[in-house]
Structures
1.
Amino acid sequence: MHQVCHRLHELLTLLNSRLPLFSVVELTSSPGPGKWSRKQILGHLIDSAVNNHRRFVLALTEPEPLVLDSYNQDAWVQCADYQHTPLEDLLSLWTTHNRQLIRLIERIPPAAHAHRCTFDNGFEATLHWLVEDYAVHLEHHVQQLLDRTPR
């Protein structure tokens, strides 16, 4: 889990140093119908941090296998109105929540890595897999956010 925490720290530093360099148009433009703007993607990452925080804690505190509910990502982004939230607020919230997630991940006992979790669609995973998947998901979206090629 040390490597995951290191990757998360790097992503926090990278996004906080580079995303503020984008123009308002670059942050709020959608690449097409049904596609999120950069600000909405960052909002989605906030929602992901919130949902994964809950999953990690429940995997540590509830009996196995933990059944994980999915959430309507588009509805969460729409309800929170990330498109009209100041970038500074979004970055601050995302950064603070991920710092807390890093602290949480660092404290996961080795024996808990194998705790079993089942998604509501039947997919089975371990807590270790959930943590790794969170980092991969974050990396994917950070690359999207920082991509300067025409969208």
Note: Helices lie at 2-18, 24-28, 38-61, 73-80, 87-106, 127-146.
2.
Amino acid sequence: MISVVLPTYNRATTLPRAVNSVLRQSFPDWELIIVDDGSTDDTPQFLASIRDPRVVVYRHPENRGVTAAKNTGLDHIRGDWFTMLDSDDEMTSDALAVMIECATRTGATAITCNCTESVTGRMTGIGPTQDGRLSADEAARCRGEHWGLTKTSLLGDLRFDERLPGFESTLWLKINRVARRYYLHRALRVYHTEGADRVTVAGRQASITDKVRVFCVLGEDRAYLEALRAAYPRDYRRTMLRVWLARLLRLAAFRSEQW
């Protein structure tokens, strides 16, 4: 079975497109885990109308953010494999079948594929230009919008750090260190960019206090920092510079409060 985790927040206009793209899959053995992150529009009514027993819905009483919604979905996956789908995007009808076939054929435990941008029709992922295995370092150097499938056993107890919205690489870099990853140079997901909304409440400009907090938290994640240093040394040096600066600012603030 493949578990598809789909977090959503106030996406009643685009959610049906995403859900229907899963319902249309040629590969039948899937479960769709929808996490409604406290929507206040017509999302609950649409979800109540879904009759396919393979679709399971969880609801947060209030909006907690996309990272928390994804973690709720990860906590409930039952499949041997999992993937995530944004609630304004869609997968091609053969997406799951193609990725499972590739995993079976190559022995991969993680599959990366490309996406198509909805407006231009161009591939959104920057990196490899042909099928082949990806090392952890090569996977880390991929840029742009990619997608894929991951063996659930690689996830274990790992989850996104809800204190770090927007830093999903803290999870994926750890998985990449142990994954046998294969890249398929095919666009199996449509990445919609014509809408301005997002899964969670639109983020405000981060304050200095927010940035200090975020980089102090990043500095505590040794497994992530080790994976970052191995895969992308330049980003590691840049991140550590910000971590140390954040620690100095936090110390200065603490001493100021003491005075």
Note: Residues 198-204 have pLDDT under 50 and may be disordered.
3.
Amino acid sequence: MTDLFLSATTEPVTPVSLVRTEDLSTWLESLEPAAAAWARSRDFQAKTNQFVWLPDGSGHPGQLAVGWDGADNLETLGGLALSLPGGVYRINAEVSQLQKLGWALGGYQFERYKNAKREPARLLVGSEEEATRLASFESAITLVRDLINTPAADMLPSHLAAEAEQLAESYGAECSVVLGDELLDRNLCAIHAVGRAAADEPRLIDIRWGDPTHPQVVLVGKGVCFDSGGLDIKPASNMRTMKKDMGGAAQVLGLAQLIMAEALPVRLRVLIPAVENAIAGNAYRPGDVVPTYQGLTVEIDNTDAEGRVVLCDALALAVEDEPDLILDYATLTGSARSAVGAEIAAMFSNSDDVAEGIFHSGEQLDDPVWRLPLHQPYGYKLESKVADTVNSASTPFGGAITAALFLQKFVADVPWVHFDIMAFNTRARPGRPEGGEAMAIRAVYGYLQDRYGQP
């Protein structure tokens, strides 16, 4: 990965002027007549990410002007790294770290199977400390994107476990894996049930890091590496992008990397139930009753509602440590996408204070989340005649809510946040290329930093 942030360089540096859209006329009047005429001839309107090269005294392009709508977000500089010629640039204005981060995130290219089209342009920042911090965020988000964009043939549960083990080793964390039938020995029967039909065995990935005296934060991520729907098989159109169904696992690995890289003073635990929801003679069936780690029995209404089934074991395991906070991420329901679309993380929580804090952090860091209600009266939709609960309501109405209510059964009274996310950009935007995406990572990290402080 190219270092997109530099604190010093011996290479030529191109200065960049940010021109607010509302200040265009004033800015044009401040230029030399030839430069102003050139900008007008190029139809420069100072729209965000629109740029124009201005001639120097000899008539050659020597300075760059970039339009800006005045907002503080990823989009400010997010379209430049792959639009400008390669080289090093410096912004001649006060810009936030969020805006600078947008520069790098807009330069992302997935390079595993084909060479990058070009090297992105690089940005000169104020200090080595700032460059290092920005690189930490860029690296974490790149990890999330790369994991999601990798097809299932190369991102099965065993591959995901290897990624987790490598991450743990990089930061001196402990990583253990409960594999295959060992899950049954540990009473993690729900994880085993969903993943047992796949050739690549189901497993629970468990990472621990940090000072034992610090407050514990547990991250739980849905790691369904491919979701066929099981015996309730998906139509082909819905199965096409199911390599991204491990998007929740990708989020928690990226967030864990950021927490460890920035040495946030928490005791971190990461739990990822990693499975493939496959079809075979031993696949779990509609109508089966599955025991869970907590002790509740779950009647399977639909095998395509598998994410909540694997999460329930991991959540119940997380509760045993009596942590300060549990956060889970999952590509769980189409209902959440219907409610908030593909670009906002739907959030549920049993703590008003935590939910409000994360929401405001997301507002500040251009990482939008929106809280949906844990509407308890909808619990009747999860009633079963033969088990403690069903895994999926028979009606699609309020589907994201009933999924969250199902998960809430396994978290007791521990403060808990559940994110139901898309984990994928369905369109390209500045700073947000099409494909796998980190969602609610910056929002949560900002909240955790505010809550627990820096070391």
Note: The longest helix spans residues 128-149.
